[in-house]
Amino acid sequence: MAASGSSHAVYRCNADGKISYNDQPCDGGRKLDIADAPPDAASNAQRIEKELAAGKKQLKQLEAERQKSEAAAAKERQRAARQQAAFDRRCERLERRQRWTSDEAAAAAGKAADKARKKAQRAAEVYEQECAAAKRIRPMQAS
Length: 143
Fold this sequence. Notes:
single chain; DUF4124 domain-containing protein
């Protein structure tokens, strides 16, 4: 009976200001009576394990939400990039049309000159309305 009691003995040791627990006696250590441990120590351990499991579950949920949010943000960035690319292509076409019509107006003579100037003016208005204002705003948004 005494042998089984000593195999369960726990000693609290204080070496160089560090506290440790051993199953062997140590200098300046004292034997702790484990029977004095509160009866709810096991239930505390179970409660802590449950809290830990709940924390892990919550962490997984948060990680899944974060990944979902990041995927949605990436998808939105791709959509915005596609829209911007389409807008840029349209503006390039309108700018090119404006240059060509201006060149045609400069080269035209007589009645064709009036018609060519009106066509160039309309092309410039369309470009200004759809693209030039947006291009002036875009650099401000980037900063």
